Amino acid sequence: MDSVFAAIVQAPEDPILGVTVAYNKDQSPVKLNLGVGAYRTEEGKPLVLNVVRKAEQLLVNDQSRVKEYLPILGLAEFNKLSAKLILGDDSPAIQENRVATAQCLSGTGSLRVGAEFLAKHYHERTIYIPQPSWGNHLKVFTMAGLSVKTYGYYDPTTLGLNFQGLLEDLGAAPAGAVVLLHACAHNPTGVDPTVEQWEQIRQLIRSKGLLPFFDSAYQGFASDGGECFIAQSYAKNMGLYGERVGALSIVCKAADVAGRVESQLKLVIRPMYSNPPIHGASIASTILKNSDMYNEWKIELKAMADRIISMRKQLFDALTAKGTPGDWSHIVKQIGMFTFTGLNSDQVAFMTKEYHIYMTSDGRISMAGLSSSTVPHLADAIHAAVTRAS
Ligand code: PLA
């Protein structure tokens, strides 16, 4: 007898995580995964931070720890520390008890819970995301019941910020609309506004009564007294990817509002996954609350960031030395884990087929997946892809 599911069609792989699936199937010894934004060492290995190992050891040795359910909003201490980390120690919003924070399943879970809350309680259902943005934004917000529009962000002719387009599009947005902002290190473009541009964006958002929803971290902006949503992820900065550690903070104008917002967050979360997992959040709070471990974390984080910057330089130098046609200075100018190369999907497909280099079809490469020993291989592939047709 036929299955009742016989008519189900095969779903496509995810545009980002599917790159890893294809990579895993490749038997070539020179294969290279520059798809997902996951940090690798110079040896090409995943990295568990020393300070994370230390925190885990402390947790394991602590016999008083149990495996009870966390409250719906997660570990209270973790939530406090996360809000402090993103808003700053001396944030008036924290001092005045105006922040409602929920421990969520990493950045994605924080975005989703925030979006569900907005769909249920907010009068304006439209959210503006940058063009382009992280591919999952559209799906997360649509699934939560919001209607997604885009605002100008990237200018492919300058490989820089389309600031005029951004101001025009947000200026034309309906009052109250939600605006998704990448707090820093915009994915996939690696292009961020300058401090002055951020201030102009802030003024526009406040003057139009738009509601900012930050993905990740940008200290300072959120301390202007206005309301905002912040989705934090510890996946990359603590290397806690698979532990799924994150937080949603909703900054409100008054403590009584924050209290009611928090009570409603619980009603959103309880039927979704009941309550979040304990281990990863315990690691993060162990690190955040101990000043020695906190400092150690910052040093290790900086080492990761510095290695990525050095990869940018090495790749740029390699292409310059080869005389690869085109201006490649954006490789060193862009910020964060990714270089938005400007390579098109045909060139990407060519590099995967001929060089076993895996990356997203929009031409984004994860610089964190590169090492000194693989830079020449990537430079060869880019050179061949660029010179092939011409
Ligand atoms: N927001 C942005 C802008 C991201 O780039 C990512 C992850 C997330 C949120 C979610 O991260 P988290 O849920 O793991 O905390 N982007 C990755 C991985 C690194 C992915 O697509 O899931 C990327 O390669 O784009």
Protein architecture, described:
The protein is of the alpha/beta class and 390 residues long. Helices cover 45% and strands 14% of the residues. The chain has 14 helices and 13 strands. The strands form four sheets. Strands 2-10-9-8-7-3-4 form a seven-stranded mixed sheet. It has a two-stranded parallel ribbon with strand order 1-12. It has a two-stranded antiparallel ribbon with strand order 5-6. A hairpin with a 4-residue loop joins β5 (154-155) and β6. It is globular and about 65 Å long. The structure holds ligand PLA.
Uncertain regions: pLDDT < 50 for 5+ in a row?
217-222
User: What is the β-strand count?
Assistant: 13
Give the biggest beta sheet: 7 strands, mixed
Q: Helix-strand pattern, N to C?
A: HEHHHEHEHEEEHEHEEEHHHHEHEEH
Overall mean confidence score, pLDDT:
94
Bound small molecules, by name, code or SMILES, are: ligand PLA
In short:
45% of the residues lie in helices and 14% in strands.
Q: How is this fold's topology laid out?
A:
Elements: H1 17-25, E1 32-33, H2 50-61, H3 76-87, H4 92-95, E2 99-105, H5 106-121, E3 126-131, H6 136-143, E4 147-152, E5 154-155, E6 160-161, H7 163-171, E7 178-182, H8 195-207, E8 211-215, E9 228-233, E10 245-251, H9 255-273, H10 279-289, H11 291-322, H12 330-333, E11 338-340, H13 345-355, E12 357-358, E13 364-366, H14 375-388
Parallel strand pairs: 1-12, 3-4, 3-7, 7-8, 8-9
Antiparallel strand pairs: 2-10, 5-6, 9-10, 11-13
Helix pairs in contact: 2-10, 2-11, 3-10, 5-6, 5-9, 7-8, 10-11, 11-14, 13-14
Bound molecules: ligand PLA.
